[in-house]
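Quick one before lunch.
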Amino acid sequence: MNKNFIGGEWIDGADAADNVNPSDTRDVVGRYARADAAQARAAIAAAHGALPRWAACTPQQRADALEQVGNEIAARQAELADLLAREEGKPLAEAKGEVLRAAHIFKFFAGEALRVAGELLASTRPGLSVEITREPVGVVSIITPWNFPIAIPAWKIAPALAYGNAVVFKPADLVPGCAWALAEMLSRAGLPPGTFNLVMGRGRDVGDTLLTDPRVAAITFTGSQDTGRKVARASIERAGPMAKFQLEMGGKNPLVVLDDADLDQAVACAINGAYFSTGQRCTASSRLVVTQGIHDRFVTALVDRLKALKVGDARAEGTTVGPVVDASQLAQDTDYIEVGRREGARLAFGGRAFEALEGRPGFYLEPALFVEADRAMRISREEIFGPVAAVIRVRDADEALAVANDTEFGLSAGVCTTSLKSAAHFKRHLQAGMVMVNAPTAGVDPHVPFGGRKGSSHGPREQGRYAVEFYTTVKTAYVNP
Ligand code: NAD
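Model of the nicotinamide-adenine-dinucleotide complex:
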């Protein structure tokens, strides 16, 4: 039984649950504790108590702790990738990439812990000077989704600790395995007890306490829009001071393919962006906006490439598309496929669900491609979060841009073109936090800002040096020597 980590000790949960492999539901990855509200409060109290001790540590001590965790993640890449693939269903090659990314994030923030800088300015008043410094925010609640079980926790935990905060971390209930492994590494990294706490469990049992306890100074959340709104409301309406909050939510990311695109490159971008990780990425290209001169050639080539994808057990040799994460996500995906059909889009490929593959009971779904979709259809507007993409045919680049931006989301957007002029125009006018030119909408670097605009995100960017904005608070000191 894998326990919660509270105040430097491993503690039984109020309850426990099995972690089940979506590639083969007979396979139980492990049994994991589930905390209740009282344990969440105990974790917050422990974090609160640890703040002065963690603040008293030198930046070098913080850097060393993060460096140690980063090195260990990298050294255990194969084992952790296997765990990730087993509990979430991401094909092994992608799981390895995600694990390495988590390692790089810890190492990046180990360096940043040493580089927390301030400013010194002359005052406008005689005799005074002004110092601008950054201080930790305090106790940070970290709430993460299931689709990046190690990278998203890493990109929140590492900066929180680097800048001197104490952490209470609640992973998604579906993926406690990687979260526990990360907590176990952090438990040996020399942090003062209580600096880092793990409380596994469901949103409704644990999450609420992490949002409403007045000792929590900041909440960083990645997940759905609905839950994001709850986080925002709770942060503002709770008793005591409001919490600082940061939300990374859904996407409905467009990949625009213009007439002059390199066809092979555009198809490769669409395959990667729409179907890798079983389409379960907030940055997935679920809208393929294609101009009419290349449309038919693009669709034919894309369907050919789709035929070559292999759906299967995430850990099996040759699998390119793993299972959907669980039964309810599979039901959501197949419901949307039905909705697309009813709305009048044509299913050009895939869309069949299988209860078992090669004798393994799991949540398998063939990648699905709709064509002749309209920008007003639900499949063109709502996040599906599965291996389902829709091609929207447009007249020209102007209409492509208008359709691409016709969404309440704004996380990532891509354009495939060989024209420098078109690339520059789309780069400037796509309404998204991240723009990709001749590259998939998904797949980002660990050392630069990540985040969106419109309905996709709220608050400062994550990752890279921009993470300092959320995890620190600025102090302006006027000094009269
Ligand atoms: P979710 O909103 O259901 O859950 C996210 C987390 O919130 C989980 O840990 C869950 O237990 C917790 N939670 C649920 N109810 C809560 C409550 N009342 N109080 C506090 N916590 C609560 O999302 P999910 O299904 O795990 O993830 C899929 C969603 O995440 C998709 O919409 C996807 O686009 C989004 N996502 C966004 C990004 C991004 O950076 N923009 C990255 C990955 C995933």
